[in-house]
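Board notes, transcribed. Complex of a protein with zinc ion.
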Amino acid sequence: MECVICAENFDATDRMPKVLVPCGHTACLRCLGLLPDSRCPTCRLDFNGPPTELPTNFTVLQLLEGVRLESTPRHAEDPAKKILRLLLAVALTE
Ligand SMILES: [Zn+2]
Ligand SMILES: [Zn+2]
């Protein structure tokens, strides 16, 4: 899963996947912060409020986590993956 603007994979930090309201498209927080106006980069519909206030697309984050788990051998725990999981756990309980 990657952002339509920067073509980088989403993550749980500065490239947090944000759902644009009301159109439902998703773009990363970093790119949304750099947009000159509050318009969806995909469909040009106005979205409400500052990017940080938009809901996070946890489905995308969970999908990313799933992809990583499948592509990484179980015996080699990736420290970055561990951190992402911790961040996810914190974000989900908030
Ligand atoms: Zn982006
Ligand atoms: Zn849109």
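The chain has three helices and two strands. Residues 39 and 52 are 14 Å apart (CA to CA).
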